[in-house]
Amino acid sequence: MKSFDQNYITQGELKREYVKQMFDAIAKRYDFLNHLLSFGFDIYWRRFAISKLNLSGSERVVDIACGTGDFSLSAYRKIPVKITGVDVSINMLKIFKEKAMKNGVVNSSFLCAEVENLPFKEGVFDICLVAFGVRNFSFLERGLKEIYRVLKGGGKLAVLEFSLPKAPLKQIYLFYFRKILPIIGKIISKHDNAYTYLPESVLRFPEGIDFVKILNGVGFGKVEMWRLTFGIVTLYIAYK
Ligand SMILES: C[S@@+](CC[C@H](N)C(=O)[O-])C[C@H]1O[C@@H](n2cnc3c(N)ncnc32)[C@H](O)[C@@H]1O
């Protein structure tokens, strides 16, 4: 396997272009691979996150880095909320749109935009969802500041992101994550390194208390945290 260019996971313009092109290229196979490589656990992780938000149905929800929309759809299935999906990849958004129509979602809009520069006024959303997105932001803190800006006072940000389990599971998991997953991902997605980018970007990402500090740094007050499935994924809920 070709060595992976570490510049693609360093925040900046190069990462922005790489990430956008990569998700445009793998969009059609994204959902299938997501469920396969997570053994279906991704469905449970999003559902768990939604259950912690105690939605009433009247909220305006923005799904940032929405991709093919599974986080929004999980919220909508629980209770029909007004959804705005935002993503840099037009191909991922197209699939979300198709899925939203199939699922009879009303009151939804889809925007091709980057989190670092959101085309919304201050304080318009009650809830912001980000599943497996923050790790991909071109500029993490700039993106989180924008999310903070567009949330209403008292609004909530729910972030799901990969993290690493503790020993002794850590070694077994890292073997799967760094050796097995990229091979299966490459064969099915037909993309040279999208599934090498995945573990590399996770290993680089500040998880747990380090991410909580970043959330506090951009202005969020209370942050709650749940480690799911042996710590493979962490849910953060941050309050404005
Ligand atoms: C791993 S996918 C997650 C998709 C979806 N949230 C889910 O739960 O499956 C990451 C998504 O983040 C989007 N993305 C990456 N960087 C972004 C940015 N700076 N602004 C907006 N979207 C971004 C990608 O295009 C991609 O669709």
Structure description:
This protein is of the alpha/beta class and 240 residues long. It has a single domain, classed as Vaccinia Virus protein VP39 (Rossmann fold). The chain contains eight helices and seven strands, in the order ααβαβαββαβαααββ. It has helices at residues 13-37, 41-51, 70-78, 90-102, 140-150, 169-189, 194-204, 209-217; strands at residues 60-64, 82-87, 108-112, 125-131, 151-162, 223-228, 233-239. It has a seven-stranded mixed sheet with strand order 3-2-1-4-5-7-6, sandwiched between helices. Bound molecules: S-adenosylmethionine (SAM).
SS element count, helices:
8
Strand residue content: 15-25%
Domains (count)? 1
CATH superfamily: Vaccinia Virus protein VP39
Radius of gyration: 17 Å
**What is the number of beta strands?**
7
What does the main sheet amount to? 7 strands, mixed
The rounded distance between the terminal residues' Cα atoms is 44 Å
- Along the chain, the helix and strand elements come as HHEHEHEEHEHHHEE
CATH class: Alpha Beta
Topology-level CATH name: Rossmann fold
Contiguous low-pLDDT stretches (5 residues minimum) are: none
What small molecules are bound in this structure? Answer: S-adenosylmethionine
Helix share, percent: 40-55%
What characteristic shape results from the CA principal axes?
Answer: globular
Structural class: alpha/beta
- Average predicted confidence as pLDDT: 92
CATH architectural label: 3-Layer(aba) Sandwich
Lateral strand order in the biggest sheet: 3-2-1-4-5-7-6
